[in-house]
């Protein structure tokens, strides 16, 4: 008999605690193994039956997914932010594993996408580019903080220009502050050079993707935004509709209602009342929201989105909400074009995604 086994893995850099649970909720096996590909494969090859496996998204999740996926019937990499049950009561590797296995068995886990891995190189390059951009911004902030700590105002970008550095350095009245600023300037120069190289490699990898020409044809989506879209979304078929994509990008609205039904003559009838809007969804991919909102700000400067934006402003919609509408429109167009494999056509597409 092909029995179902639910496996939950509590993963750490040194060890993995595995809890095997039956369909009835009985603990079949608990074991800790070393975090190595050989040990994981050895453990799974000893098991029989239909294996459904889960572990939380983290640094090791992609590596572990690639090892386990051929050995199990189903692998669910779950979102740790949604696993509130793990925060209750005592905590430990086996306790967490049991709770996670029970959530898997009862279908309560929120999966994280780990599907196609064909653009793995682009993913790595985009991740590195974003990290370098973040490091550069931090270094610039630290540099200005050195001057502000001595009461020197540093508005604008003049403080970063190489031609102005000596003029700024002589304004620091303490030697240790000047030395710190000089080292930060050296760090900034290095990061800028690294950023240029990372950008060049990232865009080269993005242009090699078949979908690049399609996405770059959409107004507002420049090369960097397209590279990020390709790396994160991977495939548009992850999303059945534009509303699912909006939610993933943080562009969908969260509503709350209560007491939705009344019993009239023994029949449940839905009460028509206005839902309580609670703003945009709080759980989303921050990079994709940055990409689509940035694309919207760029797209409204020219047609066809300029007219689309102005019409909403004339209707009394606040500018930030009108830009949000444009961002959602661009997201819908991205999904339709990507799935259809066609270039942007403003006459057809604005009607198609209305």
Write a structural description.
The protein has 354 residues and is α/β, with parallel strands linked by helices. The chain has three domains: 4-105, Nucleotidyltransferase, domain 5 (2-Layer Sandwich); 120-207; 212-352, no CATH class. 49% of the residues lie in helices and 15% in strands. The chain is built from 13 helices and nine strands. The protein has helices at residues 37-45, 61-68, 93-105, 120-148, 165-169, 175-207, 212-216, 223-233, 242-248, 286-299, 305-314, 319-340, 346-352, and strands at 4-11, 15-22, 27-34, 50-56, 74-78, 253-256, 261-264, 267-270, 276-280. The longest helix has 33 residues, at 175-207. The protein starts with a strand and ends with a helix. The model has no long low-confidence stretch (mean pLDDT 90).
